[in-house]
Design goal:
Mean pLDDT: 81
Number of helices: 12
Shape: elongated
Number of strands: 3
Distance between the termini: 56 Å
Order of helices and strands: HHHEEHEHHHHHHHH
């Protein structure tokens, strides 16, 4: 009887997660087009993509600069864009990784997230991941239960293990599928309406253009300056060994690495 229950329940967490995902992503939307490149970046890659786009835009407009050691620093220009201002306020930092944390918690990012949520274009951050993690845990419990029943059938009672083995196969298969879908949904930020709006924005040359547009859609990997991209992706430990390589601008001698990040 227990084996039959596990066979029936073996795919239930997976089905519940699929239903929950469908419900979360099918939010109503009025059909309005995206208005800013930051909206495009968020729907394409979440908060970190917005940060990458803001840094790329700030560098292009010379609001911030990148020195030879890979340290992002403020320039004398005062940015009008709130994201560029938030980037400049977080500096100096070694590499873009140290900028992403402060930008995630910044007021412009919170406002952008709330706006996209209200418009039915974005998912609540972490909600979809929580759904799939709960399903994964439930599936794991069923796998363990199936293994215990199989051992009991074979070792303890000496009965045929066909039904117990079937329950274990069903639970294990459902666990593997749930694990794959959990990984696939980790970078899902949009509702179905958000996907449609992003698809339309890709074809809008007035919104998605130049270096900023390329980074918004494709991340730093899409930045045309590969040397600058490598410098942005430096970690503090790697940056300390790189004080004489020109990342951008004119050479003004070795640069001391300064990073006021916590820790």
């Amino acid at each position: 009887m227990a084996e039959q229950i596990v066979v029936v329940l073996g795919v239930l967490p997976l089905l519940v997660a699929l239903a929950g995902t469908r419900w979360l992503r099918n939010r109503p939307h009025g059909g309005e087009p995206l208005r800013t490149i930051h909206q495009v970046a968020y729907l394409a890659g979440g908060p970190d993509r917005v940060t990458d786009t803001a840094v790329a835009a700030a560098l292009e407009r010379q609001v911030v600069r990148l020195d030879k050691a890979g340290v992002l620093r403020r320039s004398s220009a005062r940015p009008a864009d709130p994201f560029a201002f938030a980037v400049s306020e977080a500096l100096p930092k070694v590499g873009i990784g140290r900028v992403r944390g402060p930008l995630r918690a910044s007021e412009p990012m919170r406002s952008l997230r709330a706006e996209l949520l209200a418009d039915g274009l974005a998912l609540p951050e972490g909600r979809l991941h929580l759904v799939w993690r709960a399903a994964l845990l439930a599936q794991l419990v069923l796998v363990v239960l199936g293994m215990a029943m199989l051992l009991r059938a074979v070792v303890v009672t000496g009965q045929a293990a066909l039904l117990a083995g079937s329950s274990l196969i069903v639970a294990t298969t459902a666990f593997a599928v749930t694990l794959c879908l959990d990984r696939a949904h980790r970078e899902t930020w949009t509702t179905k309406a958000g996907e449609l709006a992003l698809s339309r924005a890709r074809e809008d040359p007035g919104l998605v253009t130049g270096v900023t547009g390329a980074v918004a859609l494709g991340g730093l990997a899409a930045h045309p300056d590969r040397r600058l991209t490598r410098s942005l992706l430096l970690t503090p430990s790697r940056a300390r060994d790189r004080t004489t390589v020109t990342a951008c601008g004119s050479y003004d001698g070795p640069t001391t690495v300064v990073d006021d990040s916590p820790g």
